[in-house]
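G., the chain you wanted modeled:
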Amino acid sequence: RVRGRGHTTLLLGATPLPQEPPSEWSLRVSPPGELDKADVVDGLLPGAELSSGVVADPSDFGATPVSVTIQNRHPTQWLHNVSASGGGADWAVRSFRSNVALDLAPGQTLPLAFEAALNKRLGVREREACSVMTVVVKAILGPWGQQPVEGVPGSHEASAEVKIPVRCRTARQSFLFGFVDHDGVAGIAAAIAPRLANAKAKANAKANAQAPEFSRAPVVLSLSGVGASPASHADAHKHKTSPGAPFLFGLSKA
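Predicted structure as tokens:
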């Protein structure tokens, strides 16, 4: 039998809390990833334009669900009634009607989904950051079980602002669009408009207000997964007809 004796040294480090008021640092908001939000397609959000190329409602430029990540950095206090607002010059941000009051425990991190509506039609050109969405997240800081009071002097209202750049694409490219899953979480998917059906529908729309039967096209469903994002999976369906030509997205008859 062999016995031994050793010594272990444990070093503990402590970081003091910030000197600013808790309302300044308790709420942290992180924007979605570069390819985790909807694109603006030909100046509109996907869904605002009919397959015939005609805008369904001239005052409706489209809306999309967006999700940001919120974190309660306070060690003991809760964040009550978390909500999103703002938008900036091109956008209007509003909470979903189905949203219930969201509370965050100390140290908890959760996604916050909201709806972002486009206020006007943007320029029809490809740009990585054609517009910037400004989102303001607000909450009431207080202990668990205490009824939060908003707007009363002395109450602890926490707020944080985040800017989200939005990418612009053309209808001939792949694009991202947002959706709300069955559990209320905002998701993202990619799509490519069918080339042949789109051309026929737009040509026929000038002569007939109703979309023709031959404007319909088969749908090819391609599932992304680990290591393949919706954007990269959609971009895989493109090719060049010649070395100097632009990329041709999608399939000719689907």
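Residues 195-205 form the longest helix (11 residues).

Shout if anything looks off.
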